[in-house]
Design brief:
single chain, about 130 residues, alpha/beta, 2,3-Dihydroxybiphenyl 1,2-Dioxygenase, domain 1, four-stranded mixed beta sheet, 8 strands, about 25% helix
Length: about 130
């Protein structure tokens, strides 16, 4: 068994595509639709055939409530691992990404949290072991 797709609810798929590709550096993997439905995924250029992030419109009341609830309690909707968190923090800050938490030392890692402009908080994590 392996992880292939993780869904992240967004309030605007086009804005999410721009943010995740132009700001964070992911690459568009799939983008097709049927009527008003759009299947949109991105992947890491470091592992283009690896797991995909499905940018799903939060169009249902359940998806919207879930997304808003996570954000309201400050819980990240996704966690991305990086090898140089200070470098990523500087690069992303200079490109206009708004961080809601600066680089912070925690037990076994350093983390930072950013706003993806589409309704989510995203955590960047650099492990300090392994």
């Amino acid at each position: 068994m392996k992880l292939k797709i993780m869904t992240l609810y967004v309030d605007d798929q086009e804005k999410a595509l721009q943010f995740y590709t132009e700001k964070l550096g992911f690459q568009k993997k799939n983008d097709f639709g049927n009527g008003s439905y759009r299947w949109l995924t991105v992947s890491s250029p470091e592992d283009p055939n690896g797991p995909e992030l499905h940018l799903e419109l939060n169009g249902s009341p359940v998806a919207s409530a879930y997304q808003q609830g996570l954000r309201a309690q400050g819980t990240p909707a996704a966690m991305f691992f990086v090898s140089d968190i200070e470098g990523e923090y500087d690069r992303l800050s200079k490109s206009g990404v708004r961080f809601t938490m600066p680089v912070t030392k925690t037990t076994g890692s350093r983390i930072a949290q950013l706003d993806d402009t589409c309704g989510n908080l995203i955590q960047l994590t650099q492990l300090e072991w392994g």
